[in-house]
Amino acid sequence: MSIWFGGEFPLEYCNRRNARTLNGNLGIELLEAGADYLKGRMPVDERTANPAGVLHGGASIAFAETLASWAGAFVLDSTTHHCVGLDINGNHVRPAMGGSVVYGTAKPASLGRKVQVWEVRIENEQGGLVCLSRVTMAVLEGANRY
Asked: Is residue 125 situated within a structural domain?
């Protein structure tokens, strides 16, 4: 059974909306939505690397929040509710080298009426864990602005 309100996640719509935002500037692309997850990718390049040439921790956090925010938005009825970021943390486990790509997968840990908690795993191209993030979203009344 799918967690997405209405049954399907709107990948193309979200990627279009990302284009002229921080998400697009960082090269973030949503790739796939399964029944209970959202997957995306982000390049490790001059936009996302630190001066040492590895993935910047802040870019990892922005990537995690992007995935959790899009996912959180579309488990709700967008005509009556929306969600906003409440808290985020990240454990940076290993570096991702410049010239590579990282992949992130957001899965819900809890989907409550007032709070959502998402776990986001960011992995390198070999499947090694780069960053493990937890994103907490507040669910608010009012239509979604997406």
From this structure: yes
